[in-house]
Amino acid sequence: MRSFAVARFAGAIVVTVAVLGAALMAGHELTQRRAQQQDTDFQAFAPPPVGAAGAALAVPVRCDGAALNAGTERFSDPTWSPDSTIIAATHLGADLSASRISLVYGADWSAHDIGAGRVPRWSASGELLAFEAVDKPGSLRVVNVRSGQQIANLATTSSAYAWQGDTLLFWRGSGLHAWHGGSDDLRFEIAPEYAPSRGYAPSFSGDGSRFALIRRDNGQIAQFLFGETEDGRVSPQDTPLSYSWAPIGRRLLVQYADRALLFSEAKQSATIANTEIGGTFVAWSSDGRRVLLGTPPSTTALLGWDGRRLDPVANADSAGTKALLFSADARKLATLETAGTLRIRECGPALANDPRIRMTRDRAIALVRQRPDVVSVGWKIEAKLVAWAEIKRNLSRFQNATTATIEPSTPVWVVGLSGEVRRPPSWNPPGAQPTYPLGLFILDAADGHELAMMVTSGTWWIGDGFDDLNEYGALPPAATPPPGAFSKPVNPVDYIATTTPAGVQVDSPAGWSLDAPKHWWLSSTYGRYGGAVITNFDPDYGSTTSVITATTRDRVRLTLETWSNEGRRSPEAWVDDIYKTSVGQRAGATIGGRPAQTFTQTQNFGPPPNGVQTSRIWVVSTGPVTMLVISAFPADSNKLADVERVLGSLRLSAAASPASATIAKADAIRIAMENTTGSKTGKPLPVRVDRVEAKLVRSVEAAQFTGNFQGPFAAPLMAAPDDPVWVVTIAGDLGMTNPTRCGLMACQPQPIRWSTWVVDAHTGQLRGNPSGPNDWPAFFDALPDRS
Questions:
Q1: SS3 for 747?
Q2: Antiparallel, parallel or unpaired: β 310-315 and 61-62
């Protein structure tokens, strides 16, 4: 969106304003008159004709017919009405102040100017139209296009606005306002650091439920944030090259140098590498759910990516255009050409008329059945028509594959069978079998010649080999978010969060409290006692509260954990013992009024995007046997000053009293036995039990041999150190270890001679289960019995 320059209006003595015309259907011309010291005098709008939109066409569609509007007028900002019958656009004049709002409709798709303005936006009902006023910069006008009446004139606004249903969202300074039925309510104020006055330009999703804030330096995006319009909190993202909102719904495409990221309806995202896309971004599908990609060498075949797959959506010429806009029913395509001319074309079903599909499903299956390498067909043979782009993404998995260049949108038949298939003669690795029970064949949909082939073992082609492939042109599920997205787990929390005028006060039973910023997010890490995770980004958007995450300097994650300190060491001695390597910038500090240690720690989590990661860590004693470990990631975040302010509010006090033991010894033994010998184990019977013993100990004592981190060293606590737990050890012939749990290396199953269960003595929850091949664990005998 463009905003008016103040200099364009400075020093104006006489303001020329437009008098909105009447009788659009009669085609009356608009007149202009001068007004002194008064607002524009709006005359009634003549209502545009009410068209009848047809049922939505199934994709793919062809939109390559003759242009229905061959005029030479120049337009910008075209937008379809929700019923797909009218286009509202900015009709460009010789200069900015001459811009008009036009409705383009009728059999000849001619333009009807309705008054001065620019950048029109339809409400969800199609009854209301909002646009920027050009005679009064910084104001929005809302009109009813059916009755022809002005409904509102909203002053002191920015050029960023959108409809959420029939509620108009617009910015006024750093506040987002919501107008509906005459009201003008403040919804929220953005964090001061991201206010538009500081150079952050806002934009909205097609349905107004999301917004983005973008700061540019020298025309390039320097910072990118987005979030929900319900609460005003925004999540920093990696700085992209470009982005695009879907005109319908709330999807967002963010493009980087090496990948594209699609945020779906839910708080999830899907990523595709540029090498897998098969083209460049051109437009959005008519339903706003798929990104359309131009696929060279053709300039007409448009593939759609919905976060899961690539499939043909439309045939439309994208050469020499700067915008393609499909109507919601997919029956029409508006093309805004580089020169500003607007063309409308009708669209029709493409599947039945696609000359590249000359072979039926039955014929494709018959061709595979007749192949000499198909020895027999067992219980199943099926075929799907898909785009070649879907196969090309996984072409390296096929043992036979064409080397020819094939246009990504080319339709191909995928035939999968369960039976007996001879392996390709060219594929002869060590240990290869003569035949395999599964065969997958890719056939050209035009003449049936083989493009790729694969054999493997199994019972059926589960997953993206066949089952996850979607039929050519089929619509994606209406409400299923794409898989592979990051989603924050729902973790139990034991802190108390209290909203304050400045933010959120967080009180932990581990004996600490602090004040979190108002626009940040509060969550937790599973299985941690007295901890919290505080972030300046929504963990549901493209990240998690895990330690392993891509580094983005605009983000910061603050993790608070309570660790054991049974040796009652000072913070200096404790850090010496626990953090032995990769420590830098170590120094003394004071937080919460107590002596502390601060340093950086660098860890290598593997190849990008994880790689080498450095965190800033603070350690302070919170009790006789506990340490509070605070970690800020990444250590070079540009939000580290905010972290320092949060830690400046840290308050330390006595921890809450330990829980009482309500689970009896006999019940703890019963719980352990059920999980060792009962149906829950899934182990083949019989299981022989020779000995069972139980001891009541402190949670921190049990943490020395089980928990999130096994081993006799300090670790984040799963419960308060003095909380009671039952340690139940069972010995005998308890089965074998699972060989699938040996990681990447193969291993032999081992006998299980003893199994220890840690049972929460207050709730009955299981908190750990080490086991071993020896007769009895030595650590059990060393435990005190506090029952």
A1: coil
A2: parallel
What is the Cα–Cα distance from 781 to 273, expressed in whole angstroms? 56
What pLDDT is attached to residue 94? 66
For residue 12, give both structure tokens. 């104006």
Q: What is the pTM of this model?
A: 0.79
Length of the chain: 787
- Cβ atoms 623, 511 nearer than 8 A: yes
Mean pLDDT of 25-39: 31
**Contact 260/249 with Cβ under 8 angstroms?**
no
In tens, the pLDDT along 382-437 reads 999 998 988 888 888 899 999 998 888 889 999 999 999 999 998 888 888 999 99
Q: Give the C-alpha distances (Å, rounded to integers) separating 712 from 704, 707, 728, 757.
A: 5, 11, 19, 17
The string of pLDDT tens digits covering residues 43-76 is: 566 667 666 667 888 888 889 888 888 678 899 9
Residue 738, number of CB atoms within 10 A of its CB:
12
The rounded distance, in Å, linking the Cα atoms of 694 and 726 is: 6
The bridge status of strand 594-604 relative to strand 521-523 is unpaired
Q: Report d(CA 144, CA 123) in Å as an integer.
A: 10
Element (DSSP H or E) covering residue 391 = helix 388-392
How far lies 295's CA from each of 245, 282, 300, 333, in Å? 21, 10, 8, 18
Which residue is listed with tokens 């945020």?
Answer: 263
What's at 120, amino acid-wise? Answer: P
Please report where in the chains the tokens 């860590």 appear, as a residue: 617
> For the chain, how big is the Rg over CA atoms in Å?
33
Q: Is 449 left (phi over 0), alpha (psi -120 to 50) or beta?
A: beta
Q: Give the distance from CA 124 to its chain's centroid.
A: 25
Task: Determine the pLDDT at residue 710.
Answer: 38
The 10s digit of each residue's pLDDT in 580-609 is 888 999 999 999 999 999 999 998 876 665
Q: Rounded to whole angstroms, how far apart are CA atoms 670 and 440? A: 51
End-to-end CA distance of the chain: 71
Q: How far is CA 517 from the centre of its chain?
A: 24
- For residues 295 and 407, give the distance between their C-alpha atoms in angstroms, rounded to a whole number: 7
Cα distance between residue 649 and residue 672, in whole Å: 44
HEC string for 466-527: CCCCCCCCCCCCCCCCCCCCCCCCCCCCCCEEEECCCEEEEEECCCEEEEEECCCEEECCCC
* Greatest distance between any 2 Cα atoms in the chain: 102
Angstrom distance (rounded) from CA 261 to CA 280: 14
Structure tokens of 167?
Answer: 């509620």
Cα angle, residue 21 at apex, residues 247 and 76 outer, rounded to 5°:
30
Instruction: Assess whether the previous peptide bond of 48 is cis (omega < 30° from 0).
Output: no
Instruction: Say whether pLDDT at 17 is over 50.
Output: no
Identify any residues that bridge with 583 across adjacent strands, giving them in sequence order.
601
Structure tokens at 391: 């196969």
- Which residues are CB-neighbours of 100 under 8 A, at least 6 positions away? 18, 30, 90, 91, 93, 113, 114, 115, 116, 117
3-class state of residue 366 by DSSP:
helix
Place of tokens 């959506």: 313
Number of Cβ within 10 Å of residue 53's Cβ equals 15
Q: How many helices (H) and strands (E) does the chain have?
A: 8, 52
Choose from 186-190, 681-685, 741-745, 749-753 the range with maximum mean pLDDT: 186-190
CA distance 720 to 767: 13
Which distant-in-sequence residues (6+ apart) come within 8 Å of 219 by Cβ?
none
Q: Which helix (H) or strand (E) is 782 found in, with range? A: helix 778-782
What's the pLDDT at 621?
96
Average pLDDT over residues 689-706: 87
Total Cβ atoms within 10 A of residue 176: 23
Q: Which residues contact 529 (CB under 8 A, 6 or more apart)?
A: 494, 509, 510, 562, 716, 717, 718, 719, 720
